[in-house]
């Protein structure tokens, strides 16, 4: 796997401006530039949408390619059976990511519908959660292709 696809869900297009005390003040675009420099041997694709069905479409589109998927489904993480089913349906490994520590927040954020179908979940490390997720995917790839 030399390709990682990052899929971001609703309101994550507002990173840097949205509740900076929770999500920080860096836009995802500028963080992505840095990520791409830090993983020069890996193609990092990025897709953001505010629509649940478009997350399902993106998972289906990339999920049968030789890639790993980093998914922050944002609020849909807590509600979406459709996204859970899409993760189960595809072949690519998916790492669930949250910028904030969802377990230290409101009760309704403490459960993710998606975790059970994911390779693992990383949350609470700010934007660095994405870097840790990419490292986990690349490690897993190296271990299974040794
Ligand atoms: C989030 C946490 C979710 O509860 C919230 O709805 C988001 C972002 C995070 O990255 O911390 O939009 O997924």
Could you characterize what this model shows?
- The protein is of the alpha/beta class and 146 residues long.
- Helices cover 36% and strands 18% of the residues.
- It has a five-stranded parallel β-sheet, with helices on both faces.
- α4 (81-89) links the parallel β3 and β4.
- α3 packs parallel to α4 (81-89).
- The mean pLDDT is 96.
- Bound molecules: 1,3,4-trihydroxy-5-OXO-cyclohexanecarboxylic acid (DQA).
- The site of 1,3,4-trihydroxy-5-OXO-cyclohexanecarboxylic acid has 10 residues, from loops.
Blueprint (SSEs and pairs):
Blueprint: E1 3-8, H1 20-23, H2 28-38, E2 43-48, H3 52-62, E3 68-72, H4 81-89, E4 94-98, E5 120-123, H5 128-144
Parallel strand pairs: 1-2, 1-3, 3-4, 4-5
Helix pairs in contact: 3-4
The structure holds 1,3,4-trihydroxy-5-OXO-cyclohexanecarboxylic acid.
Termini Cα gap: 12 Å
Q: Compounds present?
A: 1,3,4-trihydroxy-5-OXO-cyclohexanecarboxylic acid
The portion of residues forming beta strands comes to 15-25%
Secondary-structure-derived class: alpha/beta
Radius of gyration: 14 Å
| Number of DSSP strand runs | 5
- Spans with pLDDT under 50 lasting ≥5 residues? none
Brief characterization of the structure:
This protein is α/β, with parallel strands linked by helices and 146 residues long. It is 36% helix and 18% strand.
């Amino acid at each position: 796997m030399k390709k990682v696809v990052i899929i971001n869900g609703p309101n994550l297009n507002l990173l840097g401006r949205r509740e900076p005390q929770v999500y920080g003040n860096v836009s995802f675009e500028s963080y992505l530039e840095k990520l791409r420099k830090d993983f020069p041997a890996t193609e990092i694709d990025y897709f953001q949408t505010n629509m649940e069905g478009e997350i399902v479409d993106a998972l289906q589109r990339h999920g049968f390619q030789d890639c790993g998927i980093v998914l922050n489904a944002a609020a849909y993480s807590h509600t979406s059976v459709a996204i859970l089913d899409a993760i189960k349906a595809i072949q690519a490994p998916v790492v669930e990511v949250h910028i904030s520590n969802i377990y230290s927040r409101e009760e309704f954020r403490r459960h993710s519908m998606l975790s059970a179908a994911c390779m693992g979940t990383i949350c609470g490390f700010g934007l660095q959660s994405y870097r840790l997720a990419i490292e986990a995917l690349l490690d897993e790839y190296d271990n299974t292709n040794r």
